[in-house]
Amino acid sequence: MELMQELTLSLAEAKYKGHTFNCLPINGEQPVLRVEVSELDALPLFVTVTNTQIICIAYLFKKDEIKLEKEVELNRYLLDLNIPMPLSSFALVSDYYVVFGALARHSKKEVFHHELVTLASNAMDALEAIEPFLK
Amino acid sequence: MNVLQKLITMIRGSARELGEAVVDSQALRITEQEIIDAKSQLEDAKGSLAQVVAKRMAEERNVNELNKQKIEYETHALSAVEQNNEALALEVAAKVGDLEVQLGQKTSVVNQYTDQANRLKNQIETAEKNIAEYQRELDMVSTTASVQKATAQVTSEINSQQSALSSARESLERIKEKQQQHDDLQEAKKEVDASLKKADLDTQLKEAGIKVDSHSAGSVLERIKQQAKDAE
After folding, report:
1. What is the C-alpha separation between A107 and A103, in angstroms, rounded?
2. How many beta carbons lie within 10 A of that of residue B119, not counting itself?
3. Given a cut of 80, is residue B28 above it in pLDDT?
4. ipTM of model
5. How many domains does chain B have?
6. How far apart are the C-alpha atoms of B232 and B11, rounded to whole Å?
7. Is the domain of B112 the same as that of B142?
8. Last residue of some domain: B158, B188, B209?
9. What is the pLDDT of residues B97-150, one digit of tens each?
């Protein structure tokens, strides 16, 4: 079975630390799954698989949503927060600031579920933390 | 240029237009070709190694056989000497000498094969390292491509309302709303708990006769009688 299908199926039945997962596949060339974690669903997560990794992403904000004069300070701020934030890291994808976590393709399903719950919490915390930098 | 430096050019180049063809497909193809070449070199080297090792084993068997013969004829030579058959002994010794020459030749062939095998093993190791390195670089490139494609799909307007991304302000609004809901729920739970506790306490007081229920039939009748009395 394709890894993406496996992951989707595992989420449909999973309950991790009291959270359940709501999935929606996104059509396109690249397999992408939109995931909402119950009680942490203010920001949707997006899962995609590559040759070597499972990548889980939360899109936080677009570059043009932040105060221009605060960009350098924000970047520094995010680098400072990178290590304290469990399992996830900040990154730029195209014009989006994101938090993401990457797993090996052969990771256990529980590890994947743990990753998603952690990422959802991190994403919400991160967004609140950067609010002063928004226009 | 290091692969990460090359990637940065690609990433920044494609960031300009979201959803545009993402990665320099030329760079991707070259790396894939490098892996294919390295893998075919590796297969060749492995095939040659197997052949060389097989040849060496055959020569080693010959060397062992010659050694055995040499020892055997040396024993025969000694026996001939013991029988004072000098002529036979010389003839046997000549045979031993012959075997020694053959042994020398075969041993040097074995050594040549051993050297050749070692060289091939080194080649194989190098090829394997190269493949791992090319693979790592290719993974970086294809991961970049995958994530950029995924992002283009997620953010594209073609997607349904549900999958389109909201602005940071909207997301924050939602987070705060959810937190408010959560807080309200906690507050409501507390209130329910408190009132249940209070109700429980009231029951206990009534049962103990300390607190009187002013709306019980007894109390009301008592009050009416008192009112009538007061009115007189």
Report:
1. 6
2. 14
3. no
4. 0.89
5. 2
6. 99
7. yes
8. B158
9. 999 999 999 999 999 999 999 999 999 998 899 888 888 888 888 888 888 888
| Contact status of B142 with chain A (Cβ, < 8 Å) | yes
How close does chain B come to A60, measured CA to CA in Å? Answer: 6
Domains in chain A, start-ordered, CATH in brackets? Answer: 3-133 (3.30.1460.10)
Q: What distances in angstroms separate CA B131 from CA B48, B135, B136, B138, one per listed residue?
A: 19, 6, 8, 10
Residue B167 lies inside a defined structural domain of this protein: no
d(Cα A45, Cα A34) in Å, to the nearest integer?
6
Residues B8 and B103 grouped into a single domain: yes
Query: How far does the CA of residue A7 sit from the closest CA of chain B (Å)?
Result: 17
Classify residue B146 by burial, with Cβ atoms within 10 Å: 0-12, 13-18, 19+. buried
Q: Does B68 touch chain A (CB under 8 A)?
A: no
Place of tokens 């060339």: A29
Put simply, the answer to whether B150 touches A30 (Cβ < 8 Å) is: yes
CB contact under 8 A, A42 and B174: yes
Q: Which of A32, A39, A128 sits opposite B150 (nearest CB)?
A: A32
Beta-bridged to residue A46, according to DSSP, are A34, A57
Q: How many CA atoms lie within 13 A of B213 on its CB side?
A: 11
d(CA B222, CA A132): 67
Chain B: closest CA distance from residue A112 (Å): 18
